[in-house]
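PROTEIN DESIGN WORKSHEET
SECTION A - STRUCTURE
LENGTH: 139
TOKENS:
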């Protein structure tokens, strides 16, 4: 699978997994909705609560990975990207990925101080399918 096909695969997934590192250096994985916005395979934007455990972990250690998968009847496909996670609280970025129904999670709306954006910037990835893996760089 080439990079365009990997990007197309990621675009079809409805769930993502994000991974952070806790203060004891253990990985912590969490299922989240698909990214709100992305820029190729390089940048991915997720919404979350500023007060969340994950945000505190990324503040302490920005090393991160995200994972996408699809399990069919016979075939399993997975893509892992690793890179850095930033916590963005500027209003322009918050407005960029805001969706109408988000007030369910952020009662004060798009300006809610407990609403922030996680921006993941990938540097490399690993693709798995049919018992084969391929590592690739992201430019």
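SECTION B - SEQUENCE
RESIDUE ASSIGNMENT:
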């Amino acid at each position: 699978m080439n990079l365009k096909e990997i990007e197309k695969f990621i675009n079809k997934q409805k769930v993502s997994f994000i991974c952070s590192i806790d203060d004891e250096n253990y990985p912590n994985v969490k299922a989240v909705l698909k990214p709100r916005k992305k820029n190729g395979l390089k940048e991915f934007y997720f919404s979350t609560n500023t007060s969340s455990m994950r945000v505190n972990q990324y503040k302490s250690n920005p090393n991160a990975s995200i994972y996408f998968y699809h399990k069919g009847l016979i075939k399993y496909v997975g893509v892992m990207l690793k890179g850095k996670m930033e916590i963005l609280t500027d209003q322009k970025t918050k407005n960029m990925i805001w969706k109408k129904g988000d007030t369910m999670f952020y009662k004060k709306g798009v300006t809610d101080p407990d609403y922030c954006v996680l921006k993941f910037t990938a540097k490399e990835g690993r693709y798995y399918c049919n018992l084969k893996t391929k590592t690739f760089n992201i430019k």
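SECTION C - NOTES
Residues 89 and 116 are 5 Å apart (CA to CA).
The mean pLDDT is 95.
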